Structure prediction request, 257 residues.
Amino acid sequence: MDLAISRRLKQLSLAELPVVESLKTSMRSLQTQEPHSVPFEYFMSMFGEEKAYQLTYYGHYSKDSDDDTNGLLKKVIQYIQLHQWKAVKHISIDFRNHYALTNKAAELLTFGIGKNFNRLNSLTLNFTSCRRISNKGVEKLGIHISQHFQQLKEISISLSDCCLITDKGLKLLSASLSKYSDQLRSISLDFTNCWRVTDEGLHGIANTITKKLYKLKQLTIICSFCSEITDNGFMQLTKNICRYLIHLKKLVLIPSL
Prediction:
């Protein structure tokens, strides 16, 4: 495929990115599934001009050291800062099964995105099976999101199989997200197999998100295989949803099995 002549290309998804020095097209969306397969410079240079509105970045299974992981994320942030793509409205970062990802790396990622893309409308973060992320990392994640994304309307966060996360982390994250009372329209939280989360964690969601984000139109809560969550926890959550989220149009609740 001769990317150099694809002038009308709007979206690109590749298993492995070819080495391309520049791409003068009207492309608005780029996806890659193997960002480590080529130097990150080439991945970022694919956008060319400052017209991109969507950035999708897929990590992959990795046993890299903590230093290697943080080094990769620093390079991501450096190139974001260098090119200053102000037009980007949607960002999706997927680091599922990236076992070396730590609290520090997650904080670095959200801080860097927040400082450079504060006009984002939609943010998706997938930390599935990043098992070194704990309550501290989730707290920092929530703080940076609430501080920097002033125009955020949709957010999706997956912490599935992050087994160090407890009720405390879930309540801290919910409290941070609840500060977007005037603008957030869609929230998705997935903490599947976070077996330390109990009814208290769901009560945290019930007492923050459902009470304060009254303009929500879509809400997704997934807590499959959280064995400490009971019917009582879900009853309290659903009662608050019915009472406070009067504008809700789509609700997805997947309880513990």
